Amino acid sequence: SQKIEQNSEALNIQEGKTATLTCNYTNYSPAYLQWYRQDPGRGPVFLLLIRENEKEKRKERLKVTFDTTLKQSLFHITASQPADSATYLCALDEGYQKVTFGTGTKLQVIP
Amino acid sequence: DVKVTQSSRYLVKRTGEKVFLECVQDMDHENMFWYRQDPGLGLRLIYFSYDVKMKEKGDIPEGYSVSREKKERFSLILESASTNQTSMYLCASSTTGDRRYEQYFGPGTRLTVT
């Protein structure tokens, strides 16, 4: 199965700045890559899915890029707010409905 | 909105007990999943089901079994609970087709085995 690395366990940024989270994978390029948000003690919440033939996807203040050459996805939150503080998980499809999750990056937005 | 519910938020059981965790989804999703989540290890797939009465092993099925008798309900069974099964258990569901990799999670059950 895939090995997924998310750039750091924790990331602190100032409110209003753009947060950039990185997801690297090591094996084959997935057809689908997803990002989820998880708050403490809660289940993950699906945010965005990007396909291998899409370079970029946006949803409100969120932007995801997918570079199959670099085997990397970047997740951006623009104009970050303290309410964006959470752990963000990257996930890749393994085929047959299965998904492998990274261990996440904990984002803290400082007022 | 998709709603996935789990029978308990917190559960404390003794070593050797048989434990049942229930999950119900209300969106007529074909696929259902059970994960456990531990610090530093992330989400690990225990079992999944793509149809009623169908099941597939995930990455860590040892010590667990599952049951899916109805489309909306997926149960995880710990046959004889052990302390190393203390964890957060998360159920998820997804549809088929182009959106099959969008998983919708329940709130989780934090199980402690003493």
Poorly predicted ranges of chain A? none
Tell me the span between the first and last alpha carbons of chain A: 39 Å
Count of individual helical segments of chain B: 0
Assembly type: heterodimer
Give the number of DSSP strands of chain A. 11
Report how far the terminal alpha carbons of chain B are from each other. 37 Å
Low-confidence stretches of chain B: none
Helical content of chain B stands at under 10%
Count of separate DSSP helical elements of chain A: 0
Fold blueprint:
The complex is a heterodimer of chains A (111) and B (114).
Chain A: E1 4-6, E2 10-14, E3 19-25, E4 32-38, E5 45-51, E6 56-59, E7 62-67, E8 72-77, E9 86-95, E10 98-101, E11 105-110
Parallel strand pairs in A: 2-11
Antiparallel strand pairs in A: 1-3, 3-8, 4-5, 4-9, 6-7, 7-8, 9-10, 9-11
Chain B: E1 4-6, E2 10-13, E3 19-25, E4 31-38, E5 42-49, E6 56-57, E7 64-70, E8 73-78, E9 87-94, E10 104-105, E11 109-113
Parallel strand pairs in B: 2-11
Antiparallel strand pairs in B: 1-3, 3-8, 4-5, 4-9, 5-6, 7-8, 9-10, 9-11
What brief labels describe this structure?
heterodimer, A: 111 residues, mainly beta, six-stranded mixed sheet, five-stranded antiparallel sheet, 0% helix, 59% strand, B: 114 residues, seven-stranded mixed sheet, four-stranded antiparallel sheet, 53% strand
